[in-house]
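WARN no homologs supplied; continuing
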Amino acid sequence: MNSDYKLGSKVIMKKPHPCGTNEWEIVRVGADIKIKCLNCGRTIMIPRPEFNKKLKKIIEE
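OK structure emitted
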């Protein structure tokens, strides 16, 4: 499940964002992963190991 995602992939995280959704789009891939909330548009950066731990499912690539 580690490298199945790429730029533009839609993913579901284990915990929902405070706005109510847990669906995100990957905006940047590197040592850190930058994801954008598909509901409110907020972006956050997460270290790759933490992202891999919090990732629940990849919706589309």
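The chain is about 10% helix and 45% strand.
OK
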